Amino acid sequence: MTVLAAASLLPATILATPANMPTFSATYSVRYGILRGTMTLALERDGSGYIYRTSLRPRGVASWLRRGDIRETSRLRLVEGQIRPLDYQSVDTIANPPRRSNYYFADSPGQVTGDYKSHAVNEPMRSGGHNRISAQVAIMLALQSKTALSEYWIFDRARWRAFHFEVMPEQRAKTPSGNFDTVEVRYARDDDSKSWSLHCAPELDYLPVMIEFREGGKIKSRAVLTDYSIEHQDDPMHATSRGITSRSGPGNQAQ
What we know:
Helix content is 8%, strand content 56%. It is mostly beta strands.
């Protein structure tokens, strides 16, 4: 489902990153045409760094048509106030045959290596480059620190892709977890009619509460937040946890 591409965001500017990023887990209800699915995003501590995981699983009628799921993982570290990806793994068992990708990001000697569809990958590293999911964490941090966003690069499908984006504050998003004031980050390539949007809520440390994919200006898919948990690592007593998983909320009406 194309909504997963909404993780593909990267600011080229330097991020003023806090010493400890809030960790979180979030669940979303996904709608793509007649298909339905469940998506999860989770950022966890991993030793001195972090690990970010995403998953997408069809549900309902869609699970009859498309069995399996898509799982993506990226290990992250903080270097001089910037978030850096160490690696990226993807396993897509919805595809037939299943697809696997593995990338390894090395600032020194400045290469991206790994494999994509059983083909070897060896490309020069881009300064500040990210993969398709680590970039989502970079966007959240940029919004938290009020860092200006500009052109960005993400490594996807074995090559670098440049995107530009715009930030639209004071947007309102309705979800099953409640109604949120958000900052919408919309991004696209210059030569493409497709665009993606993250609606990030300041009150949730800029966690995306709604993710949209557009083609030709029309919304093709939407993911809305149904359940979340946020923990501030620098203050274990300051934690936010809330979920609405057993009833329809205003976000469903917005679809």
